[in-house]
Design a protein that fits this description.
Elements lengths: L4 E7 L8 H13 L6 E5 L2 H9 L8 H10 L4 E6 L6 H10 L7 E4 L7 H10 L11 E7 L8 H12 L5 E5 L6 H10 L5 E6 L6 H8 L5 H7 L4 E3 L8 H14 L3 H4 L4
Parallel strand pairs: 1-2, 1-3, 3-4, 5-6, 5-7, 7-8
């Protein structure tokens, strides 16, 4: 390996070929912050990687495969930036995969998107730019997966930050352990008359999961909200499609790059 340092961008993965460019572009943008260092983009979930291959997509390496290859190639310093939202189960699983290499590699691990109170404020500032221009009486609902973890409280904190910043018609919900569509419809009506609600996945990619459960079909959130009298528009994109969000992931990678083997090579 020409450089003893490398960049590893870790995504949970996707089974949908059409969603892969979002993750690949995000990884490339992170790598572009370190233009002289090799970049590897890896998936954490083998089932999604294998489904992507069966659907005609490329064989993205798994985290374990990328780590083995980097070690074999002689890497000694590795910056890992995950494209995760929270310090939840996915992040912890990634850290567990890194542990066997901690004695062989100098590891610098970046934080997820919503790691600190400052991150929450920054994401709240970025989210409106992910939407089309809204009329004064329109609103937005950012829907995430949720987490069986103490990190789940970040979703409520994100909505509070949006409201503090003046976006009182913007809401945050989750599929898991959050208000139901009926409860969300009631909250929206209590906020005042909203002529249309734009529903945007609070997920890095808009893949099969987001399309099926959030955006499309009678049983999706959009379908249920429509039946409850809330006019909706589905925004079929993930957070990774939003330039302002991608910049926040890049900022996390730069914050993690304290090692001279990452920083000095950019001079």
């Amino acid at each position: 390996m020409e450089h003893p340092a490398a960049i590893l961008v870790v995504s949970y993965g996707t089974s949908q070929v059409s969603a892969l460019p979002t993750l690949a572009n995000l990884a490339r943008e992170i790598g572009a912050a370190f233009p002289r260092l090799p970049l590897i983009h890896a998936f954490a979930h083998p089932r999604l990687r294998d489904a992507l291959v069966r659907g005609g997509g490329p064989r993205v390496p798994l985290v374990s495969e990328a780590l083995a290859q980097l070690t074999q190639d002689g890497a000694r310093h590795l910056l890992i930036q995950p494209t995760y939202l929270l310090f939840a189960g996915e992040y912890q699983a990634m850290v567990a995969q890194l542990e066997p290499y901690a004695q062989r590699l100098d590891l610098s691990v970046g934080q997820p998107l919503l790691a600190t109170p400052q991150d929450i404020e920054a994401v709240a500032e970025a989210l409106p730019t992910c939407l089309p221009p809204l009329a004064p009486q329109e609103g937005a609902l950012f829907l995430g997966h949720g987490a069986s973890h103490e990190a789940h409280g970040v979703y409520a904190q994100l909505e509070q930050a949006l409201h503090r910043q003046g976006h009182t018609r913007y809401f945050v919900g989750t599929l898991q352990d959050g208000p139901t569509p009926a409860e969300t419809a009631r909250r929206i009506r209590e906020a005042g008359a909203i002529t249309r609600l734009h529903v945007h996945p609070l997920m890095v990619v808009c893949g099969v999961h987001a399309t099926r459960d959030l955006l499309a079909g009678e049983q999706s959130w959009c379908g249920q909200l429509e039946r409850l009298g809330v006019p909706v528009s589905a925004v079929s994109q993930g957070l990774g499609d939003c330039p302002a969000i991608r910049r926040l992931f890049v900022a996390h990678a730069l914050e993690a790059a304290k090692n001279e083997f990452f920083t000095q090579r950019e001079k």
